[in-house]
Design brief:
The protein is an alpha/beta fold. It is built from nine helices and five strands, in the order αααααβββαβαβαα.
């Protein structure tokens, strides 16, 4: 059933046109405009009659206005400097992230990441070459094997990406043959005094004895056993020189 629309309700909501109300509104607007004009005229005439007072008022208002402008300008300068500082910080963080991403990509693309190397099965010389290759992979472009007769404990020499001298001794031992304190003592006697190491590293496929680890800690020698070597090789752990920086291991 259709419901009829009551058209008369719209007219009742509007209400009749009230000429008195409209006239009063126009008169009020005219009064406001006239009052404003009279106020401006009175101010102008007062300024003409009292120039000294007007000058003092202007002298007080002008510095105040300049102070407000200076504060706004200083605020804009501070905001600009802050934005620039944040931009520099963001750029630095982005650069570090890009370097870490590039290093992770190199690790994932390396043969060691795809096919883990069993370092314990390598002969001693091949093991030294493998350690040198790990150093080159992670940024030590000049890493080279120097081991041999008269090497005085240094098997690999390299320069880290941040310019530190890395001296590595490689111990390709079996699982039942751990590097002992005498091995560490012989290396500790030459790594700093002879080879001028900034970072001294011993890599042992057989691990280390407790006395050896204690001596290494006292002499700031970094020890990499099978687990640390596997983590470094597979990309799951940072290279030794970064570990040394975090651990505070450096020239004693």
């Amino acid at each position: 059933m259709a419901i009829p629309i009551r058209r008369g309700s719209v007219h009742r909501r509007r209400g009749p046109f009230d000429i008195r109300r409209t006239t009063f509104g126009f008169a009020l607007v005219a009064l406001i405009l006239a009052s404003g004009g009279m106020a401006l005229r009175a101010a102008w005439q007062s300024a003409g009659r009292h120039p000294v007072v007007t000058g003092l008022v202007i002298a007080l208002l002008v510095p105040a206005a300049l102070q407000v402008l200076r504060r706004r300008r200083a605020r804009r300068i501070a905001e600009t400097v802050t934005d620039a500082a944040y931009g520099i910080v963001d750029a630095g963080i982005a650069e570090l992230d890009a370097a870490e991403a590039a290093r992770a990509e190199r690790r994932s693309a390396s043969p060691e990441a795809a096919h883990p190397v069993d370092y314990a099965q390598l002969d001693p010389y091949a093991f030294e070459e493998a350690v040198a290759e790990l150093c080159r992979r992670d940024g030590c472009a000049d890493a080279a094997v120097v081991g041999g007769a008269g090497d005085l404990g240094a098997d690999v020499l390299a320069t880290t990406p941040d310019g530190r001298r890395l001296v590595v001794q490689c111990k390709r031992y079996g699982a039942d043959n751990r590097a002992g304190s005498q091995d560490l003592q012989r290396f500790g006697g030459t790594c700093y005094a002879v080879h001028e190491a900034d970072i001294a590293l011993v890599v042992s496929t057989g691990g280390f004895t407790e006395p050896a680890l204690e001596y290494a800690e006292r002499c700031a020698i970094l020890c990499y056993g099978p687990e640390e070597l596997a983590g470094w090789s597979g990309g799951g752990a940072p290279p030794p020189w970064e570990t040394a920086a975090v651990s505070g291991l450096s020239v004693p």
